[in-house]
Amino acid sequence: MATVPLSKITAYADRLLRTVKTEDWPGAVNGLQVENNGKITRLAAAVDASWTVLKMAVAAQADLLIVHHGLFWAPSHPWTGKRYAQIKLLLDRNLAVYSSHLPLDIHPVHGNNAQLCRALGFKPAEPFFHDRDQWLGIAVHSRVQRQELTRRLHLATGQKPLVAPFGPEVCRKIGIVTGGAGDQIRLAASEGIDTLITGEGPHWSFTAAEELEVNVFYAGHYATETFGVKSLTQHLAHQFKLPWIFLDNPTGL
Fold first, then answer.
1. Nearest of 88, 26, 48 to residue 221 by alpha carbon
2. Who's near 25: CB < 8 A, 6+ residues apart?
3. Which one-letter DSSP state was computed for residue 71?
């Protein structure tokens, strides 16, 4: 069984994802969040570092869990109740956790946006949705029927999207921002997007889409963000000759 130093894998991932140079939302902690004894033999990937996923990783005998939504988003104290149980499980079972949020969303090859774009049969044309001194989305120039795009999204994610069908029936400029970018509908429209693909949005974004005459596909926060961790972990597994597994724990949201 191959054994690779944890530090070697995390240093490689940090360089690949430009972890230090990518600004994220306040509270996000990108990179290694919990270390183990320093030796890695098996990788696991998941969208969320939830209690269920941690137990799934232990059952899969993984010693490095790579996630998109990590353990820490706010001051994480006190370590009591479920938080204590999570930390204790990680330490007792020698499970390290590596998290990548915006660095993984926007990566041009392994990112959620890029991977979903390719799964839909498109080639990225240009960046869009500029925030935090970086481009967070991908714009695609195409001619595809709204009904056909619905079919492709369902096939790609395994989840039928909710559609706000207020833009043109033939989608020509499609913006892709995975996760929860529905609240950016006005920004998307201002950049000439006639169809926005995202995971979820606030209630008011549906009526805003009607006012702006823009299509919005709400394809699921979880469902649109399985792509990045799969691609990244597969790449790391190939790079370091380690086995890996994807731990699927859908939220339906």
1. 48
2. 101, 102
3. S
pTM of the predicted model as reported, rounded to 2 decimal places: 0.95
Q: What is the pLDDT of residue 32?
A: 98
DSSP reduced 3-state for 94:
coil
Fold of 4-100: 3.40.1390
Minimal CA–CA distance to 32: which of 78, 71, 73? 71
Q: For the chain, how far is it from start to end, CA to CA, in angstroms?
A: 38
- Joined together, the tokens standing for residue 63 give 């010693």
Q: How many CA atoms lie within 13 A of 137 on its CB side?
A: 27
Query: What integer pLDDT is reported at residue 101 of this predicted model?
Result: 97
The pLDDT tens digits of the residues spanning 108-143 come to 999 999 999 999 999 877 999 988 789 999 999 999
User: Which is the CATH superfamily of the domain at 112-224?
Assistant: NIF3 (NGG1p interacting factor 3)-like (3.40.1390.30)
73 burial type by CB count under 10 A (0-12 exposed, 13-18 middle, 19+ buried): middle
